């Protein structure tokens, strides 16, 4: 038994039929189901560990390892069993299962509870368990998601004000049922400087006005807990950053992206909390009422904070600040710790980013691709309508998308939130018809039928 892990359960299995469900730490962590003789997906490159995993998941971990939720269909006809962390607002245990002959031995490094009902099917069992687990954390009924158009998957960080206006015009011309026009990454000058615009944007107020004048709503992307090393925030307020385990230590790494090192905002620091509130209150005041918050795993990284609270509690404190600042606006989480987010977001990305290609680069299942998006979106279908609206990622329907028919079918089956992310002028007849159909047939925020 690994150091720090205690046995919490044991299951008699049929080794030829047993299936294990491994839930990942956050949106992008691979989540899937495996026969006991299969090797689970792991990151191949340690540099992705901080940004997608928790702990040394790229190392050889014997058997199966999940963060917060592990379930087993023993394959014997006996009911499926679920193990989950007892209080995700404070701690999320890592749960492991290792085969020993005709048994699976389950261990955990923190408090977990075992659950079992009558269902042998994993989807049914997880759904029944999730209803009871999430209930105490939910503040009210789950709200339906609006349909969106998002700038990301065509323009990426190079989006301009002119690009937004072009697609706004195309929505009208093509009569697409888009409720929210979402400006994604690229409008800001630096990661962390959310109210300072890049040179491709002159005024968010004017852009919001254009969107609302067309009868649509304005949405915006923010990575609120990330601070890039090049930002004014990092330069002027180093005391706002989560640091290593002792005073005077360097800031904790939140990964490397946008060609720079990334740090985590300490949401418990009064100055950082006031800044976070000001950012979202200002954007709300400009007329944005749909917020996609991304890379928010950074708010739950372990480290030294102004207040001595567990990392999941600090993360939730940050989300509560955002919720308070945006009022009744719709909040979509992405790159988000799954269990600690229950009750604080309206929608949740449940998979890795989609890519134009089917297979992930280098075969690394931690990388964006259609295959990685499909596996987690399918395995986390049980969360839709119980904790939030599931976002399987955007529909990309232009001809350059490999196996676009398959991806559209996945979005149609598992998409509680439906969004388009093409340059609309580039859609061919099939792409336009599919985009119009999927945006016109959004499912309600109730659990998907068991598949």
Can you walk me through this structure?
The protein is an alpha/beta fold. The protein folds into two domains: 6-137, no CATH class; 148-440, Aldolase class I (TIM Barrel). It is 25% helix and 22% strand. The strands form five sheets. Strands 21-20-19-18-14-11-10-22 form an eight-stranded parallel sheet. A hairpin with a 2-residue loop joins strand 12 (188-190) and strand 13 (193-197). The protein is globular, with a radius of gyration of 22 Å. The mean pLDDT is 95.
The chain-level mean pLDDT equals 95
What is the strand tally?
A: 22
Instruction: List the strand order in the largest sheet.
Output: 21-20-19-18-14-11-10-22
| Tally of helical runs | 11
CATH class descriptor name of the largest domain: Alpha Beta
Features of this protein?
451 residues, alpha/beta, TIM Barrel, 2 domains, eight-stranded parallel beta sheet, five-stranded antiparallel beta sheet, 22% strand, globular
């Amino acid at each position: 038994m690994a150091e720090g892990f205690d046995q919490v359960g044991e299951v008699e299995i049929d080794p030829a039929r047993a299936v294990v469900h491994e839930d990942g730490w956050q949106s992008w962590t691979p989540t899937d189901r495996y026969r006991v003789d299969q090797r689970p997906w792991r990151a191949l490159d340690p540099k992705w560990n901080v940004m997608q995993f928790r702990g040394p998941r790229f190392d050889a971990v014997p058997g199966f390892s999940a963060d917060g939720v592990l379930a087993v269909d023993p394959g014997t006809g006996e009911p499926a069993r679920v193990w989950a962390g007892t209080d995700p607002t404070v701690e999320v245990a890592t749960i492991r299962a290792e085969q020993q002959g005709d048994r699976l031995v389950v261990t955990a490094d923190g408090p977990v509870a075992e659950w079992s009902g009558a269902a042998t099917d994993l989807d049914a069992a997880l759904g029944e368990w999730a209803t009871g687990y999430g209930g105490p954390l939910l503040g009210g009924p789950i709200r339906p998601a609006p349909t969106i158009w998002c700038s990301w998957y065509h323009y990426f960080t190079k989006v301009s004000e002119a690009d937004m206006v072009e697609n706004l015009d195309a929505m009208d011309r093509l009569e697409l049922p888009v409720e929210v026009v979402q400006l994604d990454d690229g409008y800001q000058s630096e990661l962390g400087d959310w109210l300072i615009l890049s040179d491709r944007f002159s005024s968010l107020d004017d852009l919001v006005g254009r969107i609302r004048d067309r009868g649509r709503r304005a949405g915006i992307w923010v990575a609120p807990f990330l601070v890039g090393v090049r930002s004014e925030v990092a330069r002027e307020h180093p005391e706002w950053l989560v640091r290593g385990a002792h005073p005077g230590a360097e800031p904790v790494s939140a990964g490397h992206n946008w060609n720079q090192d990334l740090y985590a905002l300490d949401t418990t620091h009064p100055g950082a909390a006031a800044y976070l509130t000001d950012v979202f209150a200002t954007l709300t005041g400009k007329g944005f009422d749909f917020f996609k918050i991304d890379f928010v795993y950074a708010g739950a990284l372990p480290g030294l904070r102004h207040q001595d609270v567990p990392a999941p509690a600090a993360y939730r404190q940050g989300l509560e600040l955002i919720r308070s600042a945006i009022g009744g606006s719709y909040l979509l989480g992405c790159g988000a710790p799954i269990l600690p987010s229950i009750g604080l977001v309206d929608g949740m990305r449940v998979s890795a980013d989609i890519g134009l290609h089917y297979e992930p680069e280098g075969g690394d299942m931690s990388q964006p691709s259609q295959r990685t998006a499909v596996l987690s979106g399918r395995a986390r279908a049980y969360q839709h309508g119980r904790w939030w609206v599931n976002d399987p990622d955007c529909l990309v329907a232009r001809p350059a998308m490999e196996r676009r028919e398959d991806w559209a079918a996945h979005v149609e089956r598992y998409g509680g939130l439906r969004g388009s992310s093409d340059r609309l002028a580039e859609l061919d007849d099939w792409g336009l018809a599919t985009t119009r159909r999927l945006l016109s047939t959004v499912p309600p925020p109730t659990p998907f039928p068991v598949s």
